[in-house]
Design brief:
Number of helices: 6
Number of domains: 2
Radius of gyration: 28 Å
Oligomer: single chain
Helix content: 10-25%
Distance between the termini: 78 Å
Strand order of the largest sheet: 7-8-11-13-14
Structural class: alpha+beta
Strand content: 5-15%
Order of helices and strands: HEEEEEEHEHHEEEEHHEEE
């Protein structure tokens, strides 16, 4: 009897172990599919912006089109109401993926926050460099937040779901006979509500948390539970994307934009009549645009170069510099707009600068984030330098104590926790855009003439530093600052 009892216990334990092992393997297969989808979405953020005119870095695709007019796996065209979250199947074709399936061979689902979905109206990074909050709270089984509390800044901006097998009254019956991912587009047939006897209540709806729900108003918040949670009737597995991950994915596009702006800053010198001997580049704009006559941070025409400003905001109108440098392209007019031809505008959309315009849609991006750009030109390369630029120059700029640079273009990046850009007074303070030594040097228009203030700073991105710097060498080639 003891032997029989031992065999029975061993059988029960082995059966339980096999069931546990099988469940873990299923969860791991679903987790792997979710990880691949998340990686593809983050890669899409930068790739799309670098290859599509007018696209803002940070956009995530719309969910899959449900009408059947486009190939399966394509995203819907209008993405629903502007700035309101959208939910549907993952648009795998847009991401360059084969149909991504979980352990139950079901294709993945996806929800994206209103300001992050592709609408061509709003963008995740606003005009002041503030990265918008996500619309999704992710909760633990006890209802507490998994994202460092319920602060709006910690909410997820997108979620990818592995729906698993149908449960309860859910039906996975195919909507069409020819589907690559058999099934239908009714979210409640795939994503689960909290069906426990004591469900977690969503305060916005007064009902149990439901993974199939997304808010229907701008900025509306919806709450989601990651499974499997058998006690709550949820078998959905999920991964989410944070706005910090979105910004990290945006960086290649933002660096490319900064490189192109620096390239066009150097391009001014290449069309000087005395080039290559004459390599003078433009003055900077005032930091405090609001106090300029007619100044306005939202108008490109406010970014006009100021005489003797070696450092400041990057200029768009360069008539003052053009009046001091004999130049075949950039004229002496300070009118903006209209100007015909617009020869006094450095970053106009039809510039002949080889790195500006095209599919990258640079003009559109410059127009949106112009307040985040700054420039500094070395004393030997200023418009009043006398017409020649020595190489190597004795009064050039440095970065981290190294190099000899004729000019530097800086992009202030996203607003950090210690910075505020919500008033014109704060916008006039470089400390609200730049970090380390950089704001002090930019705030002083004459700083490059002071040898102690020519040394700018770069560091790896961190919670207290995210400036992007590109350096213009005396020969006018452009490179990332060291």
């Amino acid at each position: 009897m003891l032997a029989v009892l031992t065999i029975m216990i061993a059988f029960v334990l082995l059966k339980g172990f096999n069931e546990w092992t099988s469940r873990m393997q299923r969860e791991q297969r679903s987790a792997a599919a979710l990880a691949r989808a998340k990686e593809a979405l983050l890669a899409h953020i930068s790739v799309y912006a670098l290859s599509n005119a007018g696209a803002f870095p940070g956009y995530l695709p719309c969910p899959e089109d449900t009408g059947g007019a486009l190939p399966e796996g394509s995203e819907m065209g209008n993405c629903g109401t502007t700035n309101v979250s959208a939910r549907g199947r993952l648009p795998w074709r847009v991401l360059g993926l084969p149909p991504p399936r979980d352990a139950a061979t079901e294709c993945l689902w996806y929800a994206v926050s209103g300001y992050y979905k592709r609408t061509f109206i709003s963008a995740p990074l606003d005009i002041d460099g503030v990265l918008r909050d996500g619309d999704f709270e992710i909760l633990a089984a006890d209802g507490t937040s998994l994202l460092a509390g319920s602060s709006p800044g910690n909410r997820a901006v997108a979620i990818i779901f592995a729906p698993g097998n149908p449960s309860g009254s859910q039906s996975h019956a195919p909507a069409r006979a020819d589907m690559i991912c058999p099934g239908n587009y009714t979210a409640s047939n795939y994503l689960d509500p909290d069906s426990s006897a004591t469900p977690i209540i969503d305060p916005n709806t007064g009902a149990a948390i439901d993974n199939a729900r997304v808010a229907t108003t701008t900025g509306g918040v919806s709450r989601h539970l990651p499974g499997p949670l058998s006690g709550r009737g949820i078998n959905d597995q999920l991964v989410f994307i944070t706005k910090d991950e979105v910004y990290a994915a945006m960086l290649p596009a933002l660096k490319e934009l900064t490189r192109r702006a620096a390239s066009c800053f150097a391009y001014f010198a290449t069309v000087n009549t005395g080039y290559p001997t004459d390599r003078r580049m433009p003055w900077a704009s005032n930091l405090d645009l609001h106090n300029d006559p007619g100044g306005d941070y939202t108008s490109v025409c406010s970014y006009d170069d100021d005489n003797n400003y070696l450092a400041g905001r990057m200029p768009y109108v360069v008539g003052t510099s053009g009046s001091q440098v004999t130049n075949s392209l950039f004229g002496t007019s300070s009118a903006c707009p209209p100007v015909s031809p617009p020869e006094n505008r450095l970053l106009r959309s039809d510039t002949t600068c080889p790195d500006w315009g095209g599919a990258f849609g640079v003009y559109h991006l410059w127009d949106r984030w112009k307040s985040l750009f700054f420039s500094a030109v070395a004393e030997d390369f200023e418009p009043a330098a006398g017409g020649t630029s020595p190489n190597p120059c004795p009064n050039c700029l440095q970065v981290n104590g190294a190099g000899q640079y004729a000019a530097i273009v800086l992009f202030g990046g996203r607003q950090l926790a210690s910075q505020l850009r919500d008033t014109n007074t704060r916008r006039a303070d470089a400390d609200n855009y730049l970090e380390g030594r950089n704001p002090g040097w930019i705030e002083d228009p004459d700083s490059p003439k002071d040898s102690s203030k020519r040394n700018y700073e770069t560091r790896p991105p961190a919670a207290d530093f995210n400036d992007i710097l590109y350096c213009v060498r005396p020969d006018l080639t452009v490179e990332p600052c060291p």
